[in-house]
Amino acid sequence: MHIPESLQDLADSEVVQFLKRPKIMGRILAGVFSLVVFSSLLTDGYQNKTDSPQLHCVLNGNAVACSFAVGAGLLTFLSCLGFLVLDAHEGRLASSRFRTAIQLLDFILAVIWACVWFLGFCFLANQWQRSQPREFLLGSGSAKAAIAFSFFSVLVWVFQAYLAFQDLHQDASVPYKRSLDEGAVVLTTLSPPLTASPASSSTTGPHRLNYASAALSSYLSTPKAPRLAMMPDE
């Protein structure tokens, strides 16, 4: 099957290659899941009962459950957007310490969000189990969607923590490797050339030095004849 050049160029573009990275795909999924959780409960999570016009949380009437899900979903979505921006400018970070600090923060937040969503899933599922059937006119679908995507968020954030740990572990050995590479470059720069040109070898080669030293030693070791001095006439 022939692929047009325009589609091939699009597939090889930096944006597509950036989006195909596992870490970026995990961030996008985590952001989408958190968006589903807080938007579903924010729109249909508060409903009135069959015998009252007052709005209550569909999760057993517990406002803490809905507030927790909405707040956690919103903060998770914002953190995903922030790290996507940092990932997009990762190549422009000149300082290795700053890059390591970002990777460490990414790992810590991924572990925290995995724990938060695990506790949130247990809490939301428990409140939904305690809810009375047909207590609210609407909102049951939103509650189930929030619980399901809370569980999916746990899996995604565990995967993100694993990828962040791998990046942090690989970046830890970079300064040592970089120092070895720099040392090799310095040694290569300072080392004398192995071969010399014919012109320079004729004047500064080892045979020339040996000949000069032999001539000097023979000159010093040759006995000198006594000189006759002319005495002035009296």
UniProtKB/TrEMBL annotation:
Domain MARVEL positions: 18-169
Keyword Transmembrane helix attached: yes
Annotated localization: Membrane
Cellular component aspect of the GO annotation: neuromuscular junction; synaptic vesicle membrane
Entry-linked Pfam families: MARVEL
Annotated InterPro entries: Marvel (IPR008253), Synaptogyrin (IPR016579)
Record membrane topology: Multi-pass membrane protein
Membrane-spanning parts: 24-42, 62-86, 107-126, 146-165
UniProt keyword list: Membrane, Transmembrane, Transmembrane helix
Family (UniProt): Belongs to the synaptogyrin family.
Listed name of the protein: Synaptogyrin
Originating species: Orycteropus afer afer
UniProt lineage: Eukaryota, Metazoa, Chordata, Craniata, Vertebrata
Gene: SYNGR4
